[in-house]
Amino acid sequence: MTVGLVHYLLLSGVLFSIGLYGVLAKRNVVVILMCVEIMLNATNVALVALSRYVVPALLTGQIFAVFVILVAAAEVAVGIAIVFAIYRKRQSVNINDFDLMKW
Which of 50, 52, 73, 78 is most enclosed, with most CB atoms within 10 A? Predict the structure, then answer.
């Protein structure tokens, strides 16, 4: 049995589902950021798999995956900076303690 496009898309769907569950269910900001990264990696798997099996001569999926990785790196840098700033003020990384923008 060979690994086909359906297997990669199932893996991508499972990874995205795990990341979505983590974002919706967890209360720790660091865990939420890691789950967002899992969701972005699931997108990368789907992009590269579709590119490989649909148009193997072009590298469009791989190029988009590189852009997603760049955006993910920027998101982590900004997210961790915000988490550190709020942790210094509140001494907690619980999402319920992040109420600085409320009235």
Answer: 50
